């Protein structure tokens, strides 16, 4: 169940610890503020506070997977967004690159309070997989 205050990454870290997996949290490595800022400049939409917190805490090495086989590290995301190896609609931010499985995306819809999460290999988006990033994360 997603907590009511799911915008705080520390609540998520506590949640994982309480699941009995503190070793997973201990193995994480956050992305630098400079790399997060660079990533933010590359994408066309403001990043969610919870996702920025995820990057700050686990953006370089994460025990929590946002996609299946794709890459979600900040360096891989920057490289992907710089090269645009796969063309996605302008309404999306790739948060896990496509590899064998599809990319994981934040989809920004006009007038929506926040983006939803889905997957895609290209411009054909799958149906919504989570109504918010918090739902996807938890």
Features:
globular; 138 residues; 6 helices; alpha+beta; three-stranded antiparallel β-sheet
Overall description:
This protein has 138 residues and is of the alpha+beta class. It is built from 6 helices and 3 strands; from the N terminus they run αααααβββα. It has helices spanning 9-18, 22-26, 33-42, 49-58, 74-83, 133-137, and strands at 92-96, 103-107, 116-120. A 3-stranded antiparallel β-sheet has the order 1-2-3. Helix 3 (33-42) runs parallel beside helix 5. The longest helix has 10 residues, at 9-18. It is globular and about 40 Å long.
* Shape verdict: globular
Unreliable parts: none
The largest pleated sheet is described as: 3 strands, antiparallel
Number of strands: 3
Count of helices? 6
End-to-end C-alpha gap: 7 Å
β content, as a range?
5-15%
- State the helicity in percent bands: 25-40%
**Order of secondary-structure elements:** HHHHHEEEH
Structural class label: alpha+beta
Average of per-residue pLDDT values: 87
From the alpha-carbon coordinates, what is the Rg to the nearest angstrom? 14 Å
Give me the side-by-side strand order of the main sheet: 1-2-3
Condensed summary:
The protein is α+β, with helices and mostly antiparallel strands. The protein is built from six helices and three strands; from the N terminus they run H-H-H-H-H-E-E-E-H. Helix 3 runs parallel beside helix 5.
Describe how the helices and strands are arranged.
Blueprint (H helix, E strand, L loop, with lengths): L8 H10 L3 H5 L6 H10 L6 H10 L15 H10 L8 E5 L6 E5 L8 E5 L12 H5 L1
Antiparallel strand pairs: 1-2, 2-3
Helix pairs in contact: 3-5
